[in-house]
Amino acid sequence: MKVTVKYFGAIAEQAGLHEEAIELSEIGTSLGDLKTHCIQKYQLDDDALQIAINQQIGTVNTLNDGDEIAFLPPFAGG
Amino acid sequence: MTPTDKRYRRQIQLPEVGTQGQEKLRSAKVLIVGMGGLGCPAAQYLTAAGVGTLGLMDHDRVDETNLHRQILYGNSDVGMWKVEAAKKALNRLNPETHFICYKEGLSLDNALDSIKQYDLVVDGTDNFQTKYLINDACIKTGKPWVYASIYKYEGQLSVFNYQNGPSYRCLFPKAPRKDISCQATGVIGVLSGILGTYQATEALKVILGIGNALSGKLKIIHTLTMQEQLISFNRNDLIIQETKDNPLKLEALKCELRDSENTYLDVRESHEQPKPSNSTINIPLSELMERYAEVPKEPNVHVFCQSGIRSKQAIAFLKDHGYENLINVEGGIETLLK
Known about the structure:
The complex is a heterodimer.
Chain A: E1 2-7, H1 9-15, E2 19-23, H2 31-42, E3 50-53, E4 56-57, E5 68-72
Parallel strand pairs in A: 1-5
Antiparallel strand pairs in A: 1-2, 3-4, 3-5
Chain B: H1 9-12, H2 18-27, E1 29-33, H3 39-48, E2 53-57, H4 82-93, E3 98-102, H5 111-116, E4 120-123, H6 128-141, E5 145-151, E6 154-160, H7 168-171, H8 182-185, H9 189-208, E7 217-222, E8 227-232, H10 237-245, E9 254-255, E10 263-266, E11 275-276, E12 281-282, H11 288-291, E13 301-304, H12 309-320, E14 326-328
Parallel strand pairs in B: 1-2, 1-4, 2-3, 4-5, 9-11, 10-12, 10-13, 13-14
Antiparallel strand pairs in B: 5-6, 6-7, 7-8
Helix pairs in contact in B: 3-4, 3-9
């Protein structure tokens, strides 16, 4: 089971990429599992980090094949 | 159509606008908080569109490093108050718009009173603390606001508190610990033009009541890839009710000081940010005369403020009162952060 993870803002710089496919079989299928995996893999700053699944925040926790996950840090520049 | 409507003819021609829409624009009052990269283009298009009253708020003066993205300003404006330079340029663009200038930032003292006088707020700020303050004040006064933020090549856009829609706190409930500013990271000039123009678009839609305002949705634009995302999120009734019930407050931005074994004396005023999570002794310079006896006599007390100037004054004052154990933190709190 594979999902696509997209990184935004400073998170994309910390990860060193904007997008990747991640195989979930060894990680777990909850959003929390994936979040922990990515944060540890790239030492991401998870301060106030918001996450969307299939362009929606905060409604589902279980991941499915083909889901698109977005890591959205707030930023405040103007 | 009156003779002065000639300038608006091309938008009055649009069936969704018409003379009635133009009248709505004429009677509309919009407050722009922050006249920088976002606020300038938003102000330009709102002025040109014939918005009747524009409040321009900024505590800063035009700096040369602003000019690559704040293209309302020119070389001769460097050193001028932003709101005055903006008013001068915008007046030339459309003398029919009435401008109200605020040479100050949005604060706990002025937020509710100023926002109350407008129909909606455009957020041109560059820090989390003011964004949360706009959000909370707009919830309390029942005003919608148009949010944008930029980071290097990437921008975010949304409309908050619009017709019972979600707020900034529904999207980002937890305030980040620290700010990342354009000053620190750099930013491509056109990005603020794109986002500020989008903000003007949303403001016009809200005033005119046409189309679908970007409420409950976060638009993300990346100018290097030209990829866009539209993320949906829901209203959190609990968070909004809490904001309504509690007094207006400033989000404390926390930070951690290096060398935590040191004894620190913070002589900044109580509202100043960021707040160290380390234990420090806080005596604002303005209260030092009455409270200097609280300063510890132990060796090597490190005294800091925002930039190193007030801490120096504090040390000079304390020296006259027998304190020889103080070390000034040159460069202020920034130099102490982990």
